[in-house]
Amino acid sequence: MTLTSHGIPAGRSTAAEPTLRATGLVKTYGRVVGLDGVDLELFPGEVLAVIGDNGAGKSTLIKCITGAEVPDEGHLNLQGNDVQFKRPQDAKLAGIETVYQSLAVSPALDIASNLYLGRELRKAGILGSLFRMMDTKLMRANSKSELDRLGISTLQDVTVPVENLSGGQRQAVAVARAAAFGSKVVVLDEPTAALGVRESNQVLDLIKRLREEGIPVILVSHNMPQVFDVADRIHIQRLGKRAAVITPQSHSMTDAVAIMTGAATS
């Protein structure tokens, strides 16, 4: 496979414009440099993995893309339009949904309520406008349809409280919520870090289904076998910079680790 300098298969860059492009992102914390002129491209319907050692700038990069941090320099472009996110809500409104490692689910609420958390639907007419009553029936029906669309068979009853679910099922709820409302980009930060092998495989299958749906995914992970299983391209961070962009076809896991640690260059 012939690759461009950004790890993009030759010819692809002209066939499709990136859904999300970050250019020259810089973020400093006093004398500590979090990002030092980082570029990133995410194309439609692809899984882009972001890997790197601790302190490489992975989290800072994701935070700048999703509005949790404001870069000191650089630009973000979403579907051909320049954007600037000053808070996570700005990114959500633009169509970028993030699932963090800690998860943002409410254990006491059921699955449907978690999918619509912060976006609750109200009943039509005076019941919704004046009395602000939520349309629980509609939210549950929509939630069931969304889970079926994504092929999540482990969550059959959307009325079950999240506190009764396993770790993998909770992660599936968070990813399903991101897929339902992240119309342009879904960002997953270490989605399998605290899961067992079976639950991790379920999440990886879900990531593949997001790709099949045409939703581009940014996957931040330390798990190299999982990265090489699902990623189309791999963005490698080192010391606040983008060290390389590779593919599972062009490089091995050993190559990726060598670039990540500085033992080799792309």
Please tell me about this protein's structure.
The protein is α/β, with parallel strands linked by helices. The chain has ten helices and ten strands. The strands form two sheets. The protein has a six-stranded mixed β-sheet, with helices on both faces. Strands 2-1-4-5 form a four-stranded antiparallel β-sheet, covered by helices on one side. Strand 7, helix 8 (197-212) and strand 8 (217-220) form a beta-alpha-beta unit. The longest helix is centred in the last third of the chain and has 16 residues, at 197-212. The protein starts with 11 loop residues before the first helix and ends in a 5-residue tail after the last helix.
What key attributes describe this structure?
266 residues, alpha/beta, Rossmann fold, 2 domains, four-stranded antiparallel sheet, 10 strands, 34% helix, 23% strand, globular, disordered N terminus
What's the structural blueprint in terms of helices and strands?
Elements: H1 12-15, E1 20-29, E2 32-42, E3 47-52, H2 58-66, E4 73-78, E5 81-83, H3 88-94, E6 96-99, H4 111-115, H5 126-129, H6 136-149, H7 167-181, E7 185-189, H8 197-212, E8 217-220, H9 224-230, E9 233-238, E10 241-246, H10 253-261
Parallel strand pairs: 3-8, 3-9, 6-7, 7-8
Antiparallel strand pairs: 1-2, 1-4, 4-5, 9-10
